[in-house]
Amino acid sequence: xxxxxxxxRRGRHIQTDPAADYNVGCILLQSPVFFRRDEWIPVPDxxxxxxxxxxxxxxxxxxxxxxxxxxxxxxxxxxxxxEPELVADAxxxxxxxxxxxxxxxxxxxxxxxxxxxxxxxxxxxxxxHVLDAAHIRPYAEGGSHNPSNGLLLRQDIHTLFDxxxxxxxxxxxxxxxxxxxxxxxxxxxxxxxxxxPILLPENPVFRPSAEQLIWHNENRFKS
Length: 223
Hints:
By secondary structure, this protein is mainly alpha-helical. It has helices at residues 2-9, 61-76, 84-88, 90-93, 105-115, 155-162, 179-184, 188-191, 210-219, and strands spanning 131-135, 150-154, 166-168, 174-176.
């Protein structure tokens, strides 16, 4: 892979060393829409060799025209309640329903997983299959998909966090509710985490928002 991308790095005054440990970035597409081939729009002045950075602004005539073309196609597109094969199976699965997607949920999950280096913020567990990107303030209750409203949590920790038996203080320490012991007569494993500092993203921009942590402490945590 490094050998293949070296040709794109040449000519940019960057020292090319196939053994160098440089970062390889990516761009996430959120909620893409795909047009049928007969709806494709000719793109003006797009260099065939472009690999990134080419864009059109609606301040320019070409950009405005492209956006208008896209808007017309989106407005004319019917709302799909279910795929044809699912409608055919409605008797087995019940009547199709319109579902509003959680826009940005996929990108939120990818970013939170990455910034926490694939480790549970509270337990440091590396088992990726049991790690969830959890919202501090639920999306349905006014929370956002901003990574600062997220924590990467092991699934059992995620459940306890959502139900208010665990929280994180604004100074990034674990708090475990005494009601976990009172109501279930157990929780020794979780009480061992009491007061422990959580794992934080290296970039401060992605660290949990104090405002959202305070919200969780005041509205979810069972003190």
